Amino acid sequence: MTLVLSRRGLFLSTAALAALQFLPRSASAQSGGRITVAADSEPAQLNPAIAASNGVFYISSKVIEPLAEASYDEAGLRPLLATGWEGAEDGLSITFKLREGVTWHDGTPFTSADVAFSALQVWKPLQNIGRTLFANLTAVETPDAHTAVFRFSAPTPLQLIAKALPVVSSVLPKHIYDGSEIAENPANRALIGTGPFVWGDYKPGEYYLLKRNPAYWQPDLPLAEELVFRVLPDRAAAAGSLEAGEVQLAAFSSVPLVELDRIGKVPGLTVITKGYEALTYQLVVEINHRNAHLANLKVRQAIAHAIDRQFVLDTIFLGYAAKATGPVPANDPTFYTPDVTTYAFDPEKAKALLDEAGFPADASGKRFALRLLPAPYFNETRQFGDYLRQALAAVGIDATIVANDSAAHQKAVYTDHDFDLAVAPPVFRADPAISTTNLVRSGIPAGVNFSNQGGYVNPELDSLIDTALTTLDPAARVALYHRFQQLVTADLPLINVVDWSFTSVASDKLGNIANNPRWAVSNWADLTLGT
Amino acid sequence: MAGLLKRPEALAGGAVLLALALIALAAPLLSPGDPLAIAGKPLILPLTDAAHPLGTDRLGRDLLAGLIHGARTSMTVGLLVAVVALSAGMIVGTVAGLAGGWTEAVLMRLVEAFQIVPGFLLALALVSVAGPSLAGVVLAIALGAWTGPARLARSRVLALRESEFVAAARVLGLHPAEIAFRQIMPLALPPVLSLTAIIVAGAILTEAALSFLGLGNPNVVTWGGMIAEGRNQLRSAAWLSIIPGLALVITVVSTYLVGEALTDSLTERRPR
């Protein structure tokens, strides 16, 4: 299936192409003009402080800013809403100095109260990543309007928090959210932030429109007058729209890999692999351990042995990926260890393991049936779903693919647990504690996307994750995360297949692109459209 | 039926349909195993490898196997839709025509209500809600296809119900249901049956369109699904879309040709 249509948006999407032409044209003549980029999904809600995921960031990061953004320079971080941060010796507090003269889009000044509110009311209790990262956060003191002191009940490594800032620290306006049901607040759809662009409009199935924030705190920025995220769920359409000049950018590999060779030669378009360094994606088989078959370690090992990683790498990713050995990608300079249990492609061994587990093949060669839910976000996750079904059939597991749109997929897997196997593309974000340990830590309530919703419980792994979270010594942390990788690969709460990054295809007219390691999900204040 | 044989285009169409039906029936023999299985190297060009005469797709799935098993899906859906739509249409049309009065008014307004909604949108909506099972898809497409038969059946019944044999049956004291379904319906059937081919062809196209939009069953090969799959590589591997596309065109054209001839012979219309 190439075309993933949001089922609810289906009727609208046909009208989308026509309707887009009726957007007001007024801004196109001004400096910077209107920049139109392809968007391939429409997240159910857009609040980045609650859902720290790249699908949400892609749009919301232009409106709502974090305390700091990733950067190519030595420090690895560029201050945004915070101008500086300092950790206490004992690891029990971190002091943030906040930027002065920043206002929210509705004119209210940005203060430390907003940061304290976001941290305690949103990041810690509601956010998929903040839940574990800020588990020990007890208080945020605000000695003055531009200082916030985070108090922790257990030692918390500054290095970890700093690395996580671009992802976890999207600040929400307290005056809008305070006293309301945060997850239901209308501002989750019509965003209010401090960023270079203000919320314009959203037409489901058609486009998101963001407009220049004239009162942005960085002088003379942003350069673009308007940003239009044109919803193009169809990958083939993204390539065509680029060639026709209707969109100037397709990020996150939304142009199919097979088309890159050809489109790179089209005059005026460039294929760019930079700008995704801090966004390594992991192709993962999520496992529902509530399923009696899958609760058996031998079955999980058999599935790991049934997957031909070389085939996945060569055929699905056309070489734009690397084989994964475990939950930390090999390109991570700090935490990766190759000293883990590995599972070579070996269907015979897989069959033997399934026999041992007590699931012999019947007359037709089948052992048991499973439901397989490939995440619809990427071509590659869907194709891997098709591949996995065949790979499992080869060892006698009869998998039925259940195809859903994004919203239905997330509900089925992360809220209703209505799956046996799922294909997921979680992100590795520079430190395992940011979003990787979540995938296996137990005790995460239902409804938290991109977390352990497979019902996997391993007290040893849980306590290791908790210990690492409060270990200040960098070398000791690395050792703990080596152990983490060994435990995960031995017990297989999930199966890592390959790690990959993205490509963008951009018009040569765009200036200042791919200039930080999370560029696609950064604020694009300096993005410009030349002539 | 004799008229059918005199028309070479109908004969050709019929021959193609017969061949397709045989292929669909014999699919498990012609191409054993799962047609979605990865059978060889990815993207083998057609006519270059004896093991995969029509080549392979992006993952190395055999295109010929997909085509053969896809015929099965298309044919099954086409025929089942025709059966469901014709039966529903005949029953509603006959009842409406005979009963008259309020019953007729209500039934025919219902028919019109379905008629004004584009059949494809109706199918889309239903499949989105009910999920992509075979029964769901058949029902969804039939929902947009039963109105034609219903209107035709009613008009025939209206003409027939004033006939003398119906009056005679009434005098004999036959139950109205017996008159409707044993006396009148068989006579009203031929013109309605002539719609079969058009319904089948429409259903095959609609099913392909649903699969193309990703609303088909991902565990079953369909021509529409194959075209959609190939569309990503339309510029670099066009045959992936063209081959199942041609199969679809040939099937639908053949069905229409047979349908034309059927209409002429069943309604005793002079060939144009």
TrEMBL record, chain A:
Q: Which residues cross the membrane?
A: none
Q: Which UniProt keywords apply?
A: Signal, Transport
Enumerate the InterPro entries for this protein.
Answer: Peptide/Ni-bd, SBP_5, SBP_5_dom, TAT_signal
| Localization, UniProt | Periplasm
Q: Which GO cellular component does the record give, naming just one?
A: outer membrane-bounded periplasmic space
Q: Name one Pfam family in it.
A: SBP_bac_5
Classify the source by domain of life: Bacteria
One GO MF term, please? peptide transmembrane transporter activity
The signal sequence is 1-18
Q: Which GO terms describe its biological process?
A: peptide transport
Annotated Solute-binding protein family domain residues? 77-424
Q: Which family does it belong to?
A: Belongs to the bacterial solute-binding protein 5 family.
Q: Protein name, please?
A: ABC transporter substrate-binding protein
Tell me the lineage of the source organism: Bacteria, Pseudomonadati, Pseudomonadota, Alphaproteobacteria, Rhodobacterales
UniProtKB/TrEMBL annotation, chain B:
Q: What GO cellular component term, any one, is given?
A: plasma membrane
One Pfam family this sequence matches: BPD_transp_1
Membrane topology type, per the record? Multi-pass membrane protein
As for subcellular location, the record says: Cell membrane
Question: Which keywords appear in this protein's UniProt record, sorted alphabetically?
Answer: Cell membrane, Membrane, Peptide transport, Protein transport, Transmembrane, Transmembrane helix, Transport
Stored PROSITE patterns: ABC_TM1
Q: Which GO terms describe its biological process?
A: peptide transport; protein transport; transmembrane transport
The protein's name: ABC transporter permease
Question: Where is the ABC transmembrane type-1 domain positioned along the sequence?
Answer: 75-259
Q: Which domain of life is it from?
A: Bacteria
InterPro entries listed in its UniProt record = BP-dependent_transpt_permease (IPR050366), MetI-like (IPR000515), MetI-like_sf (IPR035906)
Name the species this protein comes from: Fuscovulum blasticum DSM 2131
